């Protein structure tokens, strides 16, 4: 395969028929988003946020892009901004992984940390404040920007449908941070499978199932507020997964199946296995594995 530049490699990731056994002969398929050039599902979003901003006139040649992020969206935004030679500032709560922050800087972005205790809300406020102090800055704001669900509806859902080649699909299981992946993919798949059971995954410490907010080790998913994208696409189920259950699957996927995935993928698999037990025998479940464990090695992901 000959490619002209790295940015062309975004998307068209493999869908793995997971050899993991389920209690009732259900089959789990996992979209391996670590194969994007920036290493995660959020490369798709980064490119879309920048290109839509340019199209809509919010970004011109001298615009500084400022985005609050847990990391992967930052890498995606930095990659896309590099293509268009735009300066980038990423506002990241300091707890997020060293590797992700290093990769953002390697791509040319300036990384500004906010206190972990202030959560993603603190990073959002800081990004808005920085933009207000500058003359030509734009905050794409993944948490509210319609490009977020739209890009997954436009790219991820059709890829899954093409890969499954008319196979009956019974359920979607996807984690939520901003909620964009879930909302867009659910909308795209439901248009073809109206009875699809859509399930969102969160860690303990996230609020979707009514739990009290607290810190968790599972990285990239978990919400402090109901994602605005859920107003139009309501999840049929919410699965709340403990850190322990998520990391157990991360370890098993490496040890038995040769797959290096991050903790949000582990949570997605744990939720898919729980859901399989509630579905008729032989159901087909598709889930998303957003990134690789390699960007969490400094957090001792295999020792947790
Ligand atoms: N997993 C990981 C590792 C992520 O970085 C993200 C994005 N924060 C997600 C899952 C969740 O994606 P979304 O923001 O689309 O809900």
Automatic annotation (TrEMBL):
<dbReference type="Pfam" id="PF00291">
    <property type="entry name" value="PALP"/>
</dbReference>
<protein>
    <recommendedName>
        <fullName>cysteine synthase</fullName>
        <ecNumber>2.5.1.47</ecNumber>
    </recommendedName>
</protein>
<keyword id="KW-0028">Amino-acid biosynthesis</keyword>
<dbReference type="InterPro" id="IPR050214">
    <property type="entry name" value="Cys_Synth/Cystath_Beta-Synth"/>
</dbReference>
<comment type="pathway">
    <text>Amino-acid biosynthesis; L-cysteine biosynthesis; L-cysteine from L-serine: step 2/2.</text>
</comment>
<dbReference type="GO" id="GO:0004124">
    <property type="term" value="F:cysteine synthase activity"/>
</dbReference>
<comment type="similarity">
    <text>Belongs to the cysteine synthase/cystathionine beta-synthase family.</text>
</comment>
<dbReference type="InterPro" id="IPR001926">
    <property type="entry name" value="TrpB-like_PALP"/>
</dbReference>
<dbReference type="InterPro" id="IPR036052">
    <property type="entry name" value="TrpB-like_PALP_sf"/>
</dbReference>
<keyword id="KW-0198">Cysteine biosynthesis</keyword>
<dbReference type="InterPro" id="IPR001216">
    <property type="entry name" value="P-phosphate_BS"/>
</dbReference>
<dbReference type="GO" id="GO:0006535">
    <property type="term" value="P:cysteine biosynthetic process from serine"/>
</dbReference>
<keyword id="KW-0808">Transferase</keyword>
<feature type="domain" description="Tryptophan synthase beta chain-like PALP">
    <location>
        <begin position="8"/>
        <end position="291"/>
    </location>
</feature>
<keyword id="KW-0663">Pyridoxal phosphate</keyword>
């Amino acid at each position: 395969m000959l490619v002209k530049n790295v940015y062309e490699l975004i998307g068209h990731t493999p869908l793995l028929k997971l050899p993991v056994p389920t209690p009732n002969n259900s089959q789990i398929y996992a979209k391996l988003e670590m194969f994007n050039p920036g290493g995660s599902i959020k490369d798709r979003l980064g490119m879309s946020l920048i290109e839509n901003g340019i199209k809509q006139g919010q970004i011109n040649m001298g615009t500084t892009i400022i985005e609050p992020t847990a990391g992967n969206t930052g890498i995606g935004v930095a990659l896309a901004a590099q293509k268009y030679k735009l300066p980038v500032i990423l506002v990241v709560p300091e707890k997020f992984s060293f590797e992700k922050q290093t990769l953002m800087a390697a791509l040319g972005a300036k990384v500004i940390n906010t206190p972990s205790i202030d959560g993603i809300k603190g990073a959002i406020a800081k990004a808005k404040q920085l933009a207000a102090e500058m003359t030509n800055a734009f905050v794409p704001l993944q948490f509210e920007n319609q490009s977020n669900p739209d890009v997954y509806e436009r790219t991820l859902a059709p890829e899954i449908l093409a890969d499954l080649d008319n196979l009956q699909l019974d359920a979607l299981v996807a984690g939520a941070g901003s909620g964009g992946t879930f909302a867009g993919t659910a909308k795209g798949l439901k248009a073809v499978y109206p009875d699809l059971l859509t399930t969102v995954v969160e860690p303990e410490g996230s609020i979707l199932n009514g739990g009290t907010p607290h810190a968790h080790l599972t990285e990239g998913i978990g919400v402090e507020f109901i994602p605005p994208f859920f107003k139009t696409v309501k999840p049929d189920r919410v699965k709340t997964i403990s850190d322990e259950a998520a990391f157990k699957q991360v370890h098993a996927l490496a040890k038995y199946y040769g797959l290096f995935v991050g903790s949000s993928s582990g949570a997605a698999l744990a939720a898919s296995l729980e859901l399989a037990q509630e579905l008729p025998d032989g159901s087909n479940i598709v889930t998303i594995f957003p990134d690789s464990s390699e960007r969490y090695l400094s957090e001792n992901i295999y020792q947790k």
